[in-house]
Write a structure and sequence with these properties.
Rossmann fold, 45% helix, alpha/beta, four-stranded antiparallel beta sheet, RNA-binding, elongated, Isoleucyl-tRNA Synthetase, Domain 1, 501 residues
RNA sequence: GGUUUCGUGGCCGAGUGGCUAGGCAGAGCUCUGCAAAAGCUCGUACAGCAGUUCGAAUCUGCUCGAAACCUCCA
């Protein structure tokens, strides 16, 4: 079998994946800031890395998956005043900060479950790791890469860059930014900053008197900087150097760049072996953002309650839609595309369920050509996933298998076309990848036994009517049920089945 | 301005230097009392212009166009 290759943002190349500790993988993914409701933009990275998590486990790795909750609030670095998003929002909503954080954390968890994302193995909070963050900052100061100003602490980017460039680790190596070019153009000295340099970033920020969220530190009361929590928590749970760090492409600069700098100073080693970044989403071709007024919250997405949405979309439709695109491509959300995804998922799922209905007793395939083709398609599942998690290609193969499955079920294709062994492989692979690796679930409504009984009764009556050629009655049953969202299907063998829309 | 991406058939989207991606929609056919579902068949696409090459959608250059990041953001 081929080896897993991942695209490493750091080297800008696909690299063979080798974990630091054989059999184990440490993975850190930047989680949400819980100062507001989760939106569509959160869906992509968390689904993407859920697939990574699942696939690594499928490959047999024991994975420690750390995904943080940022509940301490970031502040605007360039703003005149430091601003804690959570403090601000808490005042606005008249909630205790932790009450606010709890509320949005719960909603976030609810959405993650709706997407069928597996919980990370550790989900640390920033507020729960103030001690670790302070400890890390102290180390950075002691090493001379940070300075204190008015109760705040800043990382000295220029010094870091000077020293570490000589070691081949310049600041900006992840995002391809060359510091010198940018520093020269830093002429906007409009605010008398505490920073020595425009590029310096805060490790700790002194809290203004009105700040609600504040902690004691060696430098006075304040709150941690934007970037330090990830470094502190990743180091604590995954060690000085770990395998995978994930997040959205927008975090590459400056967030991940700063993480690298902080951790490298503290731990004397670059923190991450493989950086994996998912691309962004757009909505009808436009970036999602407050300025475009097109931020779709997940609650709105699932309910269809948003001007940009023509209907509600099931979380599984979103998941499937995301899987149809490679994670490093931008993905455009539009109603037509989402509806297409919904139909596609239903078709795939029905074929998947039809698998249970077919059997083969053939030791040898009656149609060796088809048999060989199917085995090839199935084996490519692993090959494609090993090629930087190409879920889109795996789905394409699955759709090539759909007509084969349906054909056998409807007896267009010889019942023994596939050998018993191939059919077994087909069933196993489909189950493993659809449910296991992709984490897809049925989106068709499930009836209870009473509904099922009633519909079967109606199907019986319709069947009898048809035998009498009483098409008025049979059509009435069919049409009225269709109107209620129950679709009857006449099977080839004269039987009937139904699905709930 | 700097850093990055990207421009693929009606829509969404994979993709490798030469071999059909796939989904949705559309057309025809089979099945059916009629439908639906299912199956079969079909469009022969790769922004434009040059160049490299036996051969490029895939490599190079330029032009046009779009997006992201550089400031909170997934």
């Amino acid at each position: 079998m081929t080896q897993l290759k991942v695209y490493n943002s750091l080297s800008r190349k696909k690299e063979v994946f080798e974990s630091i500790t054989p059999g184990h993988v440490g993975m850190y993914v930047c989680g949400p800031t819980v100062s507001g409701e989760s939106h569509l933009g959160h869906a992509r990275p968390f689904i993407t890395f859920d697939i990574v998590f699942r696939y690594l486990q499928y490959l047999g790795y024991k994975v420690r998956y750390v995904r943080n909750i940022t509940d301490a609030g970031h502040f605007e670095e360039e703003g005149r005043e430091a601003e804690d998003k959570i403090s601000k929002k808490a005042l606005l909503e008249k909630l205790e900060p932790m009450e606010l954080v709890q509320k949005y954390t719960n909603m976030y968890h609810w959405a993650m479950r709706a997407f069928n994302n597996i919980d990370p193995t550790i989900e640390p909070t920033a507020t729960g790791h103030i001690v670790e963050q302070i400890g890390m900052i102290e180390k950075i100061i002691a090493d001379g890469y940070a300075y204190v100003a008015n109760g705040s602490v800043y990382f000295d980017v220029e010094k870091y860059n000077d020293v570490f460039s000589k070691k081949g680790l310049p600041y900006g190596m992840l995002s391809g930014r060359i510091l010198d070019d940018q520093l020269d153009s830093t002429r906007e000295l409009e605010n008398r900053d505490e920073k020595r340099n425009h590029r310096d970033f805060a490790l700790w920020k002194n809290a203004a008197p009105e700040h609600i969220m504040r902690w004691k530190s060696p430098w006075g009361e304040g709150f941690p900087g934007w970037h330090i929590e990830c470094s502190a928590m990743a180091t604590k749970y995954l060690g000085a150097q770990f395998d995978i760090h994930g997040g959205g492409m927008d975090l590459q600069f400056p967030h991940h760049e700063c993480e690298i700098a902080q951790s490298t100073v503290c731990n004397h080693v670059t923190p991450v072996r493989y950086w994996i970044h998912n691309n962004m989403i757009t909505i009808n071709g436009k970036k999602m953002g407050k300025s475009y007024n097109n931020v779709i919250k997940l609650t709105e997405l699932f309910s269809g309650n948003h001007p940009a949405l023509e209907q509600a979309y099931h979380p599984m439709t979103i998941r499937f839609f995301i899987l149809q695109t490679h994670y490093r491509s931008t993905l455009d959300f539009g109603n037509d595309a989402l509806k297409a995804a919904e139909k596609g998922l239903k078709r795939l799922w029905e074929a998947y369920e039809n698998l249970d209905k077919i059997q083969s007793s053939a030791a040898n395939a009656a149609d060796t050509e088809l048999d060989t083709k199917c085995v090839g398609l199935l084996n490519e599942f692993d090959e494609f996933m090993n090629d930087d998690f190409n879920t889109a290609k795996v789905l394409a193969n699955m759709f090539e298998l759909v007509p084969v499955i349906n054909g056998i079920k409807d007896k267009h294709i010889n019942q023994n076309a596939l050998s018993a062994g191939t059919l077994k492989l087909l069933k196993e692979k489909m189950k493993t990848f659809i449910e296991g690796v992709f984490g897809l679930q049925n989106i068709m409504e499930q009836g209870n036994s009473k509904i099922d009984g009633v519909i079967h009764l109606l199907m019986e009556i319709r069947k009898e009517a048809k035998l009498r050629k009483d098409y008025v009655t049979s059509d009435k049953i069919r049409n009225e049920l269709t109107a209620l969202g129950v679709q009857l299907k006449d099977e080839k063998d004269g039987s009937m089945s139904y699905t709930l829309a």
